[in-house]
Amino acid sequence: MILKELLDTEAAPLDYTRRGMSHREDFYRRELRGIQERLEDAGIKTRVVFWSVEDKQRYRESYKGTCEKRDCRRCPFPPCRKGESRHD
């Protein structure tokens, strides 16, 4: 499950900026983070994961994507999902 989630690089980023709701969810996130680090060390591209608000802000500032459709599902930012063309 973790590999499937991490290797889906076309999917929207995972937002783990808040703590998990249970010990099980915290455990899953710790494992996911460890596996992501190992994959990246091996040179394997992984899905974007926001571990902190700062990560999310840096990604938002560097995002250069453009939407081809009004109902774009790949854009991680809500204005796009509402059909707007700006990513502010």
pLDDT < 50 runs, ≥5 residues: 81-88
Rg of Cα set: 14 Å
Neighbour order of strands in the largest sheet: 1-2
**β-strand amount:** under 5%
Helix share, percent: 40-55%
Tally of DSSP β-strands: 2
- Which class of secondary structure composition applies to the elements? mainly alpha
Descriptive report:
- The protein is mostly helical and 88 residues long.
- The N and C termini lie far apart (33 Å).
- The protein is built from 4 helices and 2 strands.
- Mean pLDDT is 80; it is low at 81-88.
Architecture blueprint of SSEs:
Layout: H1 2-7, E1 14-15, H2 23-41, E2 49-50, H3 53-62, H4 78-81
In brief:
The protein has 88 residues and is mainly alpha-helical. The longest helix has 19 residues.
State the main characteristics.
single chain; 88 residues; mainly alpha; two-stranded parallel sheet; 2 strands; disordered C terminus
